[in-house]
Amino acid sequence: MPTARQKLVVRCLMMSVDGFAAGLHQRLEQPFGDNTEGFTDWMFATRSGNEMLGLEGGEGGADDDYVAHSFDNIGATILGRHMFGVSRGPWTDDGWKGWWGPNPPYHAPTFVLTHHPRDPIPMEGGTTFHFATEGIDDALERAFASADGKDVRLMGGATTVRQYLSAGLVDELHIALVPMLIGSGERVFPESSPPPGYVCVEHISTPAITHLRFERR
Amino acid sequence: MPTARQKLVVRCLMMSVDGFAAGLHQRLEQPFGDNTEGFTDWMFATRSGNEMLGLEGGEGGADDDYVAHSFDNIGATILGRHMFGVSRGPWTDDGWKGWWGPNPPYHAPTFVLTHHPRDPIPMEGGTTFHFATEGIDDALERAFASADGKDVRLMGGATTVRQYLSAGLVDELHIALVPMLIGSGERVFPESSPPPGYVCVEHISTPAITHLRFERR
Questions:
Q1: Peptide bond before B157: cis, by omega within 30 degrees of 0?
Q2: Which of A122, A199, A213, B109 is the most exposed place for a label (fewest CB within 10 A)?
Q3: ipTM of the predicted structure?
Q4: Using CA atoms, how far apart are residues B214 and B170, in angstroms rounded to an integer?
Q5: Can you tell me the distance from the alpha carbon of B208 to that of A201, in angstroms, rounded to the nearest whole number?
Q6: Cα separation of B89 and B108, whole Å?
Q7: Are A212 and B183 inside 8 Å of each other by CB?
Q8: What is the value of pTM for the model shown?
Q9: Which residues in chain B have Cβ-Cβ distances shorter than 8 Å to A189?
Q10: Peptide bond into A185 cis (omega under 30)
């Protein structure tokens, strides 16, 4: 039997109303940069958002459902270097292994886009960070190949998502629209992209955010 | 008694999830440009949206309420030339007086931003189109002066709103977020703007769109 085509999906991508997934000046004490106070509150108000980080607390409800199902049928993930950490340029021996502690929430092969080679880092819980230096197409190909037939989740950040959107490679896009304005930063959507052909298949607001899920037809 | 300061307000500004208020290639038969099919459906589903254009039909509800109150306490309006019509450059004798017929929905002094002078056009119902050639600050000053102490509504299009946002002149911003992607066109938000200082004071979804209203604090 033929298997369904593997998809590249974006889920729970936080975006401000002015279109930014992060502000300027990302730094250790403010991972999302300037003017982003409260940006992630909705996520930490959910039970699943806390669970993923090994924390307790949080509520159920629609926001929680989206977070809880955000890794359904995901066999590999891709993320940009800026989402992996704040360092830039050639890797150093600083011991940085991502923001997420010894057991990251990916639990699958995870491809970090970078211009600088680095050996893979196996983590607890099934995550291995691979450093993909050959561009977005190559990273996607490797992610599909390692996903055991499942889909690949594109985690972010904004620059990485924008590149994949520009290349027309994103099959599903779920935006968690946070009702705030950031002013300056990293845009999710390219200035100009191919006629998108996306249809909105889910559109609901909770008290905290608006969920918008698009599928390509 | 001191009167409340006059405000510059944006209401019911339609924006796609990728941040565009219009697509490319605005033209007579497609006023919002490419890839905007269905963009205005929510408006024509409201009773007030139809009434403003002298049409019948449409429903009540939250979308209708926003449209019905979109001219509350408005004494003058501002719009960009591209919103006034599709012609560019020096004005000709083509007889164009806007998209809205003899009785436009503004019912107040209305300032059209343009580089090209033209005599005012009085219309039925209280609208007079004035052609403002001295830039956005001057147009706003004239609009405030002619608004009889009331607020000024900035109608659009995207380029005009973006200019006023960049200049930090917008006091209230109500986005009617349409759950679609347009891909390319005119962005509402500048690439980079001053720290915004806006607070979201209303955030609701209807089946058709999401309303997000911001006030500057």
A1: yes
A2: A122
A3: 0.92
A4: 10
A5: 12
A6: 25
A7: no
A8: 0.93
A9: 18-19, 181
A10: no
